[in-house]
Every structure is written in structure tokens, then in C-alpha cells.
Amino acid sequence: MSGGSSSKSQKEMARSIVQKLRTAGVRLVALDWDRTIITVHTKGCWEDGPSKLAKHVRPCFKYFIAACLDSSLHLCVVTFSSQSPLIKDTLKIAIPHSDTSAIIIRGNTKDWARIQGVPILGKQQHIASAIREVTSKRHQVIQPGEVILMDDDTENLKIAETFGHRAFFVRDDMAMEHFKECVMDHLPNNTKTASDKN
Length: 198
Ligand SMILES: [Mg+2]
Prior knowledge:
- The chain is 44% helix and 11% strand.
- By secondary structure, the protein is an alpha/beta fold.
């Protein structure tokens, strides 16, 4: 992350995005990997190791993920990539001052059970499994409307919306200012879940 006052203002903007998400009733943030958290598409076969891939993590997401981990929001990566260990290691390197082990990773791997009754469509299985982990390990029940999917693939977003989730499009050149603006302008407040504290 770059130093100085710009880093400070990025941190502040990330914090206000998290605050806005919480006010809007979001409790689980599901992030796509390829061309969302990272600016490149690995096609699930990145061979240059996590240090090199960490250089491609979108700066605004470094701050946003750190701010999420600092809050009560649950965070998961939902991806068709099967390189989950690489994703874990990359996040650890890119965001060294946060406990990135708290991020639930759901890739196209065999280390998590598919959820019965949920179609294999878009990121729905990945999201449903992350929700299940929050329930079983953190003892919190997450409703569909409390999940936001951030993805560069509009098809995945459309599907997520039909399942009652919020959807947030990540454009190619997304920087913090635009990220904050979109979240602030387009996410309605949800007073129903405003009692969710801490
Ligand atoms: Mg993608």
C-alpha cells in the first residue's frame, strides 16, 4: 500500500464504504477473485506464485478488505478458480496487517460440500456454502438480502439478484473514489437490520 496522506484517505474511504454497507443491512460480503480483487484473469492456472500475483491486487480492495476484517462484516471469496491455496497466500501477502485467515475461500475445489437444494448456477453454491460456514462456525444466521456479491461478471450478478442477494458491479478501472461513490449512491439504507451492532 502506498504511504502518506493518500493512504490515510484511502483507509478512511474504505471505512466509510464498510459503514455504508452495514447501514444498508449487509452482513456478508462475497468477492469474486479474477478481475475483481485482482486486476488480471488467472484462468485458474497462475504459475508465478503468490508474491507476483499480490502485485495485481486492486489497491482499493486491499483497503476495503482490511476495513471489512476490522468490522463485523463477514468476508468470503467466491470464485470459479480452483487455486484456493494461492488465493489465501496472495491475500496474506497483499494485506499483511490484517488477519486474512478470517476470509472464507470458496473456489471450485473439493474441500467443501455442495449445498443441497441450491442450483449450480453462477456463484450460488459458493455463497450458500459461505453462509453455512458463518452459521456453523460463527453462529450467525445470514439472510439472502444481507449478502452482497461484488463481481465483474454481470451474469453472476444477475443470478445473485434473483436469489435475493445484493449485486455490485466491479468495473475494470475501479479505484477507491468510484467504489465509494457507487456504494454511497446506489445502496439503499435498510433500517430493518440497523440493530446489528459492533
Ligand atoms: Mg471475475
